[in-house]
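dude i think i finally got it to work??
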Amino acid sequence: MADFLVVLGDSPTAHRWRAAGVHIAAALGAGTPSAAVEQPDLAAWTWRRRDGSRGAVAAEHGGDLLLAAGSWFGPDDLHSGSEPALLARVAARGIEPVARELDGFFTLVHAGASEPGVVAVATDPIGSHLAHVRYGDGACAVAASPLWLAALGEPALDAVGCQEFLATGILYEDRTLFRDVRRLPPAAVVWLGAAGPLRNAQTWQIGALEPGSLAAAAAVDAFGAGMRDAVRRAARGAERPICDLTAGWDSRLLVAFLLDAGIAFDTTVTGDASSADVRLSLRIADAFGLRHHVIDTPTPPDLALLEEARALCDGEVDVLDYARIASVQRALLPRFGTSWNGSFGEVARGYWWEILEPSPGAVARLDAARVASQRYAKGAIATRLWPESERLDPLRHMTEVVARCDAAIDRDAPLGFRLDHAYLRMRMRCWQGRIASSTDRLRACLSPLIFRSVLEPLLRTRPEDRARNRLARRTLARFAPELAALPLEAGGPALPMSAANAWRFAPELMNLVRRATRKLLRGRGSPEPAFARDARLALWRDPRFEVRFAPRELALAQHVVPAELERLVIASRQPDFADEALFGRLLGIELALRAHSRATAERAAAR
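look at this
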């Protein structure tokens, strides 16, 4: 996430936070601020991205201050880089109406001269560009990084947040790893004072849309128009863009409309020569004359790469997995600026709708227990790291989270629409948003499919016209027929099936049979990727890691049941560690706690 820090208040705590903030950010890997603003009851700083590009920026005019982080897009061709013009618009009209006009992946912080001692924080429609808040005695601090805010005081872990993260790999709702640090809500303007939150307003409500109001050809027209608008806007100010291109649906949808708009871009894929992603993306690139860059599968990370990954993700992502993502992004840094991807394309395809009963078009509330057990808590790992009185049952907990999310749709709506709402608010905000926010610290990144011009027609499309990839197939056939004719990973083309082309789907049918057979022979669940196992065992073969991460050396032991943590650490040294995904998550929390300790120690030594 493009980094910023704002401290509000005139109390001793506020002044202590102001004095500590920049030092903590530097100790946690941010470097030197690119801009600083000092006022009697407010201090603010912004930082560039790690690639040196503009990250969060500050604009001032007539006593008003605006911080903008991420990639925002407004009317009249306004976009990131036009912050003075955006501030003038906010000063003339107010932050709430302006925030309703904006799209993209962003956080804005506005301090107006007319309301001293107050800041208004505007989050993007999905809330993917994460922003966080912490309160103290007469002090409020807002930052992109939850770890920076946690380091302003003692590291009190949030038992629910940590267990949720260890169980599922994701932090939901407003939780972070730390009890005193909360995420701000999506699609909102939140006014904050030094004593606490004052008021808030919603800038986009999914529940206000009319599900089922677009059918067949009208849905294709609306989705296509939305995609054309999205890629045109995303291209404003994008420097040397590079776009993911794999064997799947979502990147193909994005590439189709980039080609349609005549936008100059390169493409990239990660993997070895035998993978379907590499083989089929090379075929697409060759067919359309794209400059395509194949990145080899990264090797397991060492301690230095893990620490770099922690500095980007704050320990809130499986740090082994994020080190792999960051290494791919770093390989592209010297040649390219903005990174585009096809995230949110799943909504076009009725993703996860197969679990809905009796059908995606049925009007009912979500069966929260079913949704949780088959998706959000599937494969969840329960631990005994916390005392029994604080211990979390992952299935029960995620059932409650799904139910709370679904309750926000306070009207009759089809099950498919309700599941999409949960998917956007839970998975895309909390999982994709955490990864995208981490990468945005390194370089500008954006999925054009996040724009409301894309999501609104998708959410309004009749379930029967979106299920089983129908809308995606019809859209590609309409706007990019040559691209739609090329095969997907499953083997068939991205075209609608007809009597004339049914033979072309034979490889897809055979692939489905093979997958079903493998699943039957394998039993329940699927093996973890070899990368996680190889990375874990490589770390334990490193004598430095073995010494530094011995059970008695772990900072986490001060917050959990030490004997249970020791049991897990010892078990993780074995090749057949039962809970492979748990290791990278535990390591993320441990690295965050150690970074917290270093930052506070360096700050104390500097006094």
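The two ends are 29 Å apart (CA to CA).
im so relieved honestly
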